[in-house]
Specification:
This protein is α+β, with helices and mostly antiparallel strands. Helix content is 42%, strand content 17%. The chain has a four-stranded antiparallel beta sheet, with helices on one face. Strands 3-4-7 form a three-stranded antiparallel beta sheet, with helices on one face. Strand 5 and strand 6 form a beta hairpin. The longest helix has 21 residues. The termini are far apart.
C-alpha cells in the first residue's frame, strides 16, 4: 500500500508491491525514444502520488545536444526517475488540454513543479533544479501553444 511510503521513488516488483527504486527499466526503441518496462512511482513531500506506468513512451530528459556537457545525457540514470515521471505528467496534461485548455495548463504546471521537487529529492543542486524547471516551463509553452 502506498499510503505509508515516505517521499521518494519506487518501482513495482513482480508481485505488484512497491519497492525503493534501484534503476528505471527501459526498452529503447527506434531513435531517441524508449518505453518504461517497470512502473515508477514518485511520492512527493505532500504525499501526492505520481505514476509513470509500464508502456509509457519517454525520451528521457528532453534537452538539446549542446547542453549535454553541462546538464548530462537525456538518459542519465541519476535523474531518469524524475524524467519519466515528468513525461507521464506531461502526457496526461496534454490529453486534458485538448478538451479543457485551462485545466491542461494547470496540470502541466503541477507536473513541472513535481519534476523540480523530484530532481531536488534526487540530490540536484538548487541551481540545477531551477535550470531544469525553467527549461520544462519553456517546453510547456512550446507544447501547449
Amino acid at each position: 500500500m502506498t499510503d505509508q511510503l515516505p517521499q521518494g521513488y519506487y518501482e513495482a516488483d513482480d508481485a505488484g508491491a512497491w519497492q525503493p527504486l534501484k534503476q528505471v527499466q527501459l526498452a529503447h526503441v527506434i531513435g531517441d525514444g524508449a518505453v518504461v518496462l517497470r512502473s515508477v512511482l514518485y511520492i512527493d513531500a505532500a504525499g501526492g502520488q505520481h505514476l509513470a506506468p509500464v508502456g509509457l513512451a519517454t525520451d528521457g530528459g528532453s534537452k538539446p545536444k549542446l547542453s549535454w556537457a553541462v546538464f548530462g545525457h537525456p538518459y542519465d540514470p541519476h535523474y531518469l526517475p524524475a524524467y519519466v515521471v515528468h513525461d507521464a505528467g506531461c502526457e496526461a496534461a496534454l490529453r486534458v488540454f485538448q478538451m479543457d485548455q485551462a485545466r491542461g495548463l494547470e496540470l502541466r504546471l503541477h507536473a513541472d513543479r513535481t519534476f523540480r521537487e523530484g530532481v531536488l529529492h534526487l540530490g540536484a543542486s538548487r541551481w540545477r533544479a531551477a535550470s531544469y524547471y525553467r527549461a520544462v516551463r519553456c517546453g510547456a509553452w512550446w507544447a501547449m501553444r
